[in-house]
Structure of DnaJ homologue subfamily C member 28 conserved domain-containing protein:
Amino acid sequence: MNARDEHEPDADARPQPVLNAENMPAIVETAIQVAIRRGEFDDLPGAGKPIEGLGAQHDPDWWIRRKIERENLTGLGPPALMLRVEDRGMQEQLDSLTREEDVRAVLDDFNRRVVEARRQLMGGPPVVTAPRDVDAEVAAWRERREAARPHNAAAPERARCIPSFLRRRTR
């Protein structure tokens, strides 16, 4: 050892700051700034992109919901989560139907399962999915069908060209 080493305090021998509630924010901020200068936050995945899910409602089951959505799983999970997934896709499901009776049957079945899930006392995530108003949903379904229907004069002409026995079958 030389004389210079004896007079310089060792870097590890420096007194460590006492952690308490008053100086904790300053210690954390200093550690973050040191890490930034060393480049420890460079090239992180998602850098420069918005953080997904910020500002959305708090969902205690976010992790299982994301897993189900990401892997496109169906039929898995607690009824409360499956009802949420089905509720999100209800409009597309209804729009694929052609008869009002079928729309009402799907909505009645969905509402029955929502009520049944709320009555279960088995634990799991809470059922936050509300039953659907059947009449309002049927009216919205009709409006969407009417808006999607082509409004041109060729449709009645085409209908006249189709024999009547075929027209009855296609309705």
Observations:
- The radius of gyration is 31 Å.
- The mean pLDDT is 80.
